[in-house]
Amino acid sequence: MRILITGAAGFIASHLCEKLKSLGHEVYGIDNFNDYYEVKLKELNASDLAKQGIFIFRRDLNDDLNDVFATPYDYIFHFAAQPGISSETTLEEYVDNNIYATQNLLEATLKYNSNIKSFINISTSSVYGIEATVDETALAKPVSFYGVTKLASEQLVLGLQRTGKLKACSIRLYSVYGPRERPEKLYTKLIENLYFDKPFPLFEGSLEHERSFTFVGDIVDGLAAIIRKEEVINGEIINLGTDEVNTTQEGIQVVEAIMNKRLIIDYKPARNGDQLRTSAVIDKAKLLLGYKPKTNLKEGLQKQVDWYLEKFT
Prior knowledge:
Strand order of the largest sheet: 3-2-1-4-5-7-12
Radius of gyration: 19 Å
Largest sheet: 7 strands, parallel
Oligomer: single chain
């Protein structure tokens, strides 16, 4: 199969590129290498992918995508987005990178690649709102610019599916961690600050937040299972995470034990838009995809610590 993955130099997408390549698929990526975080980290990921014969188009999804679609694809996995919850990111940036970019990609797909087997939109548990503890039939109640615009992009995709113009589905991911996690995310930043004995900025109340922390290897296994199941998942919204729930405090304690160090915490005011609790309901993923997450938090964090120490120390 010939597969295009957007945001390919990023965290989860780069892992999926490698997974699908290892399964014998022809994999292409597209990424704009923006400076939301250090570009050199994306370049490291892109270099790893290039060594495996995975070509990445260096293009913004809001640009003309004619040459990207010179040869049609069997599947598109759409990861590219303005991520996270940040007071420094404007609504305009979220709209440009999550809504307009998705629409431009969809228009290019319909123009050049309308017979695609499936367009897989990568969404987020943030669309559920303050508490993401429900199944896919629940009403979405996002409270952040990120969640609102990701829900909008999801509906752009599913709107085309509902009108018969595109075969598509949307996958809502839960608190993914592991090697290559973005530097501002919880565990990469935690590992860095522990290693260098730097105070760790923590938002008030977040120690008690509960999360379905899901190892990236389990996520990509679930996504790879979509291949050749496009008829089964067409039009579906599917949660992908783990039903194991841990608090942020428990996660910190696991990393402290692995690194045999104690964290210095610098408390910050509570952050607007933060979810209080996520607990992935994954019955549909188990039924339709045979999905079965197998990596517990300690195992996954050991792999992330090992990756960080190898790459950055």
